[in-house]
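Researcher: Here's my situation. A collaborator sent me these components and asked whether they could plausibly form a single complex. I don't have experimental data yet, so a predicted model of the whole assembly would be a useful starting point for our discussion.
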Amino acid sequence: MAEFRMPSLGSDMEAGTLVEWQIKPGDAVHRGQIVAVVETVKGAIDVEIFEDGVVDELLVVPGTEVPVGTALARIRSAQPRAVPESPEPSTSPAPIAATPAAAPSEPAAAGPAALAPARGGRLKVSPAARRRAAERGIDLADVRGSGPDGAITLADVEGAAAPAPRPAAGARDLAAMRQAIAAAMAHAKREIPHYYLAMPVDMAPALAWLELRNADRPPEDRLLPAILLVKAVAKATKRFAEFNGFYRNGGFEPSEAVHVGMAIALRGGGLVAPALHDARDQDLDALMQDFRDLVQRARSGHLRSSELADPTITVTSLGERGVEAVFPIIYPPQVAIVGFGAVTERPWVQDGRLIARQALTASLAADHRVSDGHRGGLFLAAIADALQQPELL
Amino acid sequence: MNRDEIQSRLTQILGTIAPEMDAAALDPTLDLREQLDIDSMDLLNFITAIHKQLGVNIPEADYPRLTSLAACVDYVAERR
């Protein structure tokens, strides 16, 4: 038996509110499946499960705010050998109930709700309503019936569920997000001895290659320069593993996988930095599709838990808005962040001659507990080198 | 499709990219990217939607012409 717990979606998260279950007891679940929606300061997040099994029991009802690590559901592990299925016991210990104190932002919540089956046969409930109530974790005893003889209809259950709806797309508590960013960045500045490096990168070969590559493609298949930058960073981590991973429990844990966090500014303020998974192993077209999808979901809601929890290094392209260079802050527990300034035409000396060249300033903030400036400089140079041969990215 | 219709379709597409925008306050003669805080991903989504919905494929080389909403309307009107 395994427990499915409230995930930590970044070091700035202490608690989350379960908004919705997308599974019910008896359902088979698979690794990577979205099983619940959790509301965080980063918006509503689709939470994935990381094992195969069968849902035994849901322990927390929608509308409840619980600390990171709290068991949300019990999962029976999938057994490779056939085990005779024992009859489903109907035991159902009292789940953690939503209380007004736990969910202060939802004063209209219908009080403690329980997953327990409706008490006795006293209540008249339509089958559809009963099913929906079970899915949503609503205690039918708390629902006022509007049907004949006070029977509870589907609409009544839907109405009772209304106090904990899925937040509107894009709806975010900006003040809460600001607080979370403040906590994470203050932690980073307090704990991580940053060092900062910058170097100019000739972008002419990459942009010329990109122009040709995009020329005969419809807009939906075009690449953005940002994708070349991300891929160059991901490739460079192969020889510079000390910039890809986590600083945890007093030591550095390098990561095999390269999940590049993409700093994405949100309309109306705030930012998130969800992961482009396996950036080193994907080709540019696949990365671009993932990036489009990621930006769209970052802005409209429905980021996935793994995208927030997984980044092993972050990239920020503030140059988009014209700034020349970025001096970024590491997102703990990561150990490095790479910044890219705007591409500008600037004076460039090549073979003793002064020419105009399209270039940008790449920067690195890295954790001195893990690496030194010398290696950092080589890492930046490796990124710049990779961008000189875009066809190999 | 006349210019008004094109402008209304383009405004509609922009509304999906910048949901908070006030269409009435959008000045068609001013810089579009600045008014709506449009980044390169937003621009690509705008151009992709124009291609899919209006059948006009805008090559990258022509991006610099798409300065304002009015300029976008001109561009699409020429090519439909």
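Model: Some features of this prediction you could bring to your collaborator: Chain B is about 60% helix and 0% strand. Residues 61 and 80 of chain B are 18 Å apart (CA to CA).
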